[in-house]
Design brief:
The protein is of the alpha+beta class. It has 16 helices and 13 strands. The two termini are about 45 Å apart.
């Protein structure tokens, strides 16, 4: 589409939206306003179809890859300020309802042809398509005969025209389960084990939450044994609940491992607790500090940590810039990394929440171009955004002592600098 055609389309769209707004304005009857809602939903669905079709064609032509993005969802999140989940939903839908191109250039039908037709007609929405793709991509669906599965897809797509996405998911799942009457083939191998642990720091600096599940009895027994060894009541008057004793025991196990120095390197360094102390707090005899993962440290805990020689104090000025990265027996890069960690507190790319242990230090001016290994020339990035900086037109620079990122023109024609959102930081 030429620039003139795009400008004309944009003008007509703005006029149409203004006309709909006027149709629902003062003087409109209840029936007219209800009709406006119906028309708006239809328009949103058709716009979603245009968006999905455009995403599919850009991905097929390699436009995202040419701009340094391996994952189209990441490009969409940066371009349109979408959440990653929303961007992934659009790319999944694009893969399912857009015609495909074979290696010989032949155009193939969409993976979900009946769903694609109803989506193009505006009879179902984006969420409906995502539900259908999810259900038909399940393990149960893959066990169904392809011919029967094609018939099921057509039936599910038709029901999507009258079901909500949640209702459709329930109904379609039952349909696939019914088609998969025999269930999975007999298998003597044990079921797959699920061992997960999620560490979520609280944004207000009040600690965090652990959520875990261990199906592997050996792993669970190792954890339970270590916790149990330290979870017994300390005295006859110990009034802590069993849950409190176990929580403190787990923390003690981890602290002992840190003290012993037997943990592997994380992000290019051995694990170490960095305590960030503001200059004013230091002058007030260290009344508070911030830990690596953003937790607020109480004066009592800070004084206790200060007794541990393995803790490296990092003193910050009023602007949050390190004044003293402490004295350590390691080489200079280790001290600089601590300074970068104190400033960036994880991946500095806008919207990224990767903690320092998952990140690497990037030279803003490359080393081979005489860039210095200094705080003013370093920024902390996760692996995904580190690669993006090396393979795309994003620019990173230090301004007022903090990193900021300039997007390429195809993302923002005005190239307005972006910084890590305030809500992602712990003040």
């Amino acid at each position: 589409m030429s620039t003139d055609r795009l400008a004309a389309a944009h003008r007509l769209l703005v006029e149409a939206v203004a006309a709909l707004d006027g149709a629902a304005g003062p003087g409109a009857t209840a029936d007219e306003r209800l009709s406006v809602l119906t028309v708006c939903e239809g328009a949103v669905r058709r716009l979603d179809r245009v968006t999905v079709s455009t995403v599919a064609s850009l991905d097929r032509d390699g436009a995202f890859a040419e701009r340094g993005y391996r994952n189209p969802a990441l490009a969409l999140a940066d371009l349109l300020n979408w959440d990653r989940a929303e961007a992934r939903r659009r790319t999944v839908v694009a893969e399912q309802v857009h015609p495909r191109i074979a290696l010989d250039g032949t155009e193939l039908p969409a993976v979900l042809p009946a769903t694609a037709q109803r989506f193009a007609e505006g009879r179902i929405g984006l969420r409906h398509v995502h539900v259908i793709a999810t259900v038909l991509g399940s393990h149960a669906a893959r066990r169904v005969d392809p011919e029967r599965l094609a018939g099921a897809e057509a039936e599910i797509a038709e029901h999507a025209c009258v079901f909500t996405p949640a209702e459709l998911h329930t109904w379609a799942t039952r349909l696939i389960d019914a088609l998969d009457e025999d269930g999975p083939a007999p298998d003597d191998t044990p079921p797959p084990q699920r061992n997960t642990l999620k560490v979520v720091p609280h944004r207000d600096g009040s600690g965090g939450t652990l959520r875990g599940r261990f199906d592997d009895p050996v792993l669970f027994d190792a954890i339970a044994t270590a916790v149990d060894a330290l979870a017994a009541p300390r005295t006859a008057t110990d009034d802590r609940s069993p849950e409190e004793r176990q929580a403190e025991a787990l923390a003690e196990v981890c602290a002992n491992s840190l003290d012993d120095g037997r943990l592997p390197e994380t992000g290019g360094r051995r694990p170490v607790i960095s305590v960030l102390i503001g200059l004013e707090d230091l002058q007030r005899r260290a009344r508070g500090a911030i830990l690596d993962f953003g937790g607020q440290c109480t004066p009592q805990s800070l004084r206790m940590l200060a007794c541990d020689a393995a803790v490296v104090p990092i003193v910050l000025d009023g602007a949050g810039q390190p004044l003293d990265i402490g004295r350590a027996t390691r080489t200079v890069p280790e001290g600089i990394r601590r300074a970068v960690t104190a400033r960036d507190r994880g991946c500095a790319h806008p919207g990224c929440d990767r903690p320092p242990s998952w990140c690497e230090v990037h030279h803003i001016v490359p080393w081979e171009l005489w860039g210095e290994t200094s705080l003013a020339n370093c920024v902390m990035l996760c692996k995904v955004h580190h690669r993006l900086l090396h393979h795309s037109a994003w620019i990173v620079r230090i301004r007022d002592g903090l990193p900021e990122f300039v997007p390429p023109r195809w993302i923002d024609p005005q190239q307005r600098p972006r910084r890590q959102s305030d809500y992602a930081r712990v003040a």
